[in-house]
Write a structure and sequence with these properties.
The structure holds 2 protein chains of 2 kinds. By secondary structure, chain A is mainly alpha-helical. Helices cover 26% and strands 0% of the residues of chain A. Chain B has 11 helices and no strands. Classes of the chains: A mainly alpha, B mainly alpha.
């Protein structure tokens, strides 16, 4: 009957639409995958490749410029064997305010003494306790990928007009 | 009581009279040889208790402190010089060594009665045990450190800048001894609450001239005050 025909043709049309969409999705994703980044590493992951030499750490005690003001400064000295645990925080034994006179180390930033509401605390905030979550030493190696970072002083800002 | 007294009298009669059947030579030389054997045996047994293998024969030591030592610079380093348990915990000189061995009877007690025979007990005692060792090394001016390390033999040009500065300021001047700053050099640190590092300036002299200030610091101060006056 006519009503049955319409329902049937609607179902068929819907099925056709779904099948067509699936085909488009499949070919489209294949096309996109050709452009996406591939896995890096040795061409044959199952083969044994010679190990690269271990990197040298940059531990010359020279402070490096930060790439942006709020960057956690990198660690310019060796931290080998430094215990950073619930029991002991070796970093703080030089960089905490009360120890800086004896050690000569830069004091940790005041932001480390603030809780998340911006209130000043007497001691280091617990959220800043584990230093190496943000601060790292540098190794003397080439970057793994290309870097297009532009320092913000090079991004144009119009100077104020003089009088 | 009377039996003991009679026994003692009989022993005294035996040793206070000349030997009836044994010759003088036998007794003197035999005594001499026996003494040598005894002394050698005693010392050998003492040295056996001075080895790393003996120390880590207890699981309390092997699983806790020895395992922590294997991750430090005293176990594996560039020059391949390894320090084991007796190098740091037993003095080299004979008199100090015997004194330490007598103190070690407390450790035998601890082993027999299981003072730290579980991980939990060890962790609870860690601060107390560490404090004992810190006090010992502070009292003998880090004698065991100086078994291998000597401040007059340090080549400061080979150390990093921080290390050479701090060693010059504190170690060479005699202000601090090794253990004041190098706690945790061999085993993990306990809860360090209330333990200040060795370079902390005591509050009573904060703001004043430091004891390790040299004439150059005085000169710097005068130059800085002169420049401030010029502004």
């Amino acid at each position: 009957m006519r009503s049955q025909d319409r329902t049937r043709s609607m179902i068929l049309r819907r099925r056709l639409a779904v099948a067509l969409a699936a085909c488009v999705a499949l070919t489209g994703s294949v096309a996109l995958a050709q452009q996406a980044a591939e896995l890096v590493g040795p061409p044959d992951p199952t083969k044994t490749v010679p190990a690269e030499p271990l990197e040298d750490w940059v531990i010359d005690d020279i402070r490096k410029m930060r790439a942006y003001p709020e960057q956690p400064p990198i660690i310019p000295h060796s931290i080998e064997g430094y215990q950073l645990s619930v029991n002991a925080n070796r970093c703080m034994t030089c960089h905490k305010r009360e120890f800086t006179q004896g050690s000569g180390a830069p004091m940790i930033s005041v932001t480390h003494y603030m809780n998340r509401d911006g209130q000043m605390l007497a001691d280091v905030s617990p959220r800043r306790y584990f230093c190496t979550e943000c601060h790292v030493p540098q190794a003397d190696v080439e970057p793994l990928v290309g870097n297009t970072f532009i320092d913000m002083i090079h991004i144009g800002s119009q100077p104020a007009e003089s009088e | 009581m009377r039996r003991i007294k009679r026994l003692l009298i009989r022993v005294w009669h035996l040793v206070s009279r000349p030997a009836a059947t044994l010759s003088l030579g036998f007794l003197t030389l035999g005594g001499f040889v026996g003494g040598v054997i005894f002394w050698g045996g005693f010392n050998t047994a003492l040295e056996v208790t001075n080895t790393e293998a003996f120390c880590i024969s207890c699981h309390e030591m092997e699983n806790n402190v020895f395992e922590e030592l294997t991750r430090t610079v005293h176990f594996s380093n560039r020059s391949g010089v390894r320090a084991s348990c007796p190098d740091c915990h037993v003095p080299h000189d004979w008199t100090d060594k015997i004194a330490r061995k007598m103190q070690a009877s407390k450790e035998v007690w601890g082993h027999l009665f299981g003072t730290i025979n579980t991980r939990r007990k060890f962790l609870d005692h860690r601060r107390e045990l560490a404090e004992h060792e810190w006090a010992r090394l502070k009292a003998n001016d880090s004698l065991e450190c100086r078994n291998c390390h000597s401040e007059v033999a340090m080549d400061f040009s080979k150390q990093t800048q921080r290390a050479s500065e701090i060693h010059t300021r504190y170690l060479i001047n005699g202000e601090a001894t090794c253990i004041d700053c190098h706690k945790g050099i061999a085993h993990e640190l306990p809860n360090m609450e209330g333990v200040d590092p060795g370079w902390k300036v005591p509050p009573e002299i904060q703001g004043e001239e430091l004891p390790q200030a040299t004439v150059f610091d005085e000169l710097e101060k005068r130059v800085a005050s002169a420049h401030a006056a010029l502004r």
